[in-house]
């Protein structure tokens, strides 16, 4: 009889599962929830060069040992990386939690208490207290009939992979930010030097003008103009020193130091070689950590969508308990007095108020959102590389033009100073010539700094590697 009931129940639950499997959004009716990445050409459009993915450290091209040391310091001391490493550990713990759901759950309990009863005697009300001791062990286990729990484990492992990819992306970002901050500090100090040169040039004009005025060769307007230009140069020095101090503090914060403006820099900018584009667009998707993280989240979302669907199917649970409750503790631990129970149940959700179907629909929608996020991340990654490639060519042309502009401006300034001394031009011509030279020098500093930071952004967009020693230090720190 019991066997017939079990067979009937199994057939009934299977029929219910079959009817729910045909609901919209399940199996054949749910549509395709995964999609391929957007199409990419075989070569970069900006330069038309295809090749293999770059290897080694991208910092070596700057030929700056100080930059390498600063990047290693930032990777070792960054609070951001410590936070990401902690999130990786949390994801590992979540994975262990998911795996534990496939194992039996066993609870043990020990209790001790008493009961007090009052009863009437000839002399009055008497009260009797009896001790009660109890022991119990409860166990439960769910058989993973449809691999629903297995999908949950796989989703947690995908979350772990995404968390590790986030850590790698953060390492690369911190390295790039530190290198860019070092470039910006040197550029700020170089601009401060230009401001000092401007002051010296203006001061020479003031001295020359005052001497000419004393000899009656210049007017008071010329003297006032020279002094005004000198005061403006002095104000520019204060501004440049403020900007260089801010750049130094930004770098010190990235290094994990107190922002005390104590870091020193040579105020020199790298002169870069022509960029050699490496890697084609499709290789980029296998190289960038943030793309790997988006892909892992896509996988996790798909697994959870499938897990939500499988939650609507029957589940097999085994439960067992061993317990005793005796007035004497010796009797409580007597094996002959222990009662045991073992139950196997096959459970099929019949009516949940739409909760399971809503959870399934939400999981599918989240998977579709993950697909869109992955496509968006891929397009953004390609766009960043194309922008950096195109910008490097234009910035190289700009740097070359600024160098020629500076050379011509220097010659024009020398000529203007000789002509002003001889009285053939006015002070306004001389100040204008000086301004062009100083502006050209400032623009050259900006062009070199922009090209260097763009080169760093290019390797960041490619997912370029870290120095070997720095990567090893970060790996040890995360572990």
UniProtKB/TrEMBL annotation:
SUPFAM superfamilies (alphabetical): Outer membrane efflux proteins (OEP)
Stretch forming the signal peptide: 1-21
Keyword Membrane listed: yes
GO MF term (any one): efflux transmembrane transporter activity
Gene3D superfamilies: Outer membrane efflux proteins (OEP)
Keyword Lipoprotein part of the UniProt annotation: yes
Membrane topology classification: Lipid-anchor
Keywords: Lipoprotein, Membrane, Palmitate, Signal, Transmembrane, Transmembrane beta strand
GO cellular component: plasma membrane
Main location (coarse class): membrane
Subcellular location: Cell membrane
PANTHER family assigned to the protein according to its UniProt record, in alphabetical order: CATION EFFLUX SYSTEM PROTEIN CUSC, OUTER MEMBRANE CATION EFFLUX PROTEIN
Family label: Belongs to the outer membrane factor (OMF) (TC 1.B.17) family.
Record protein name field: RND transporter
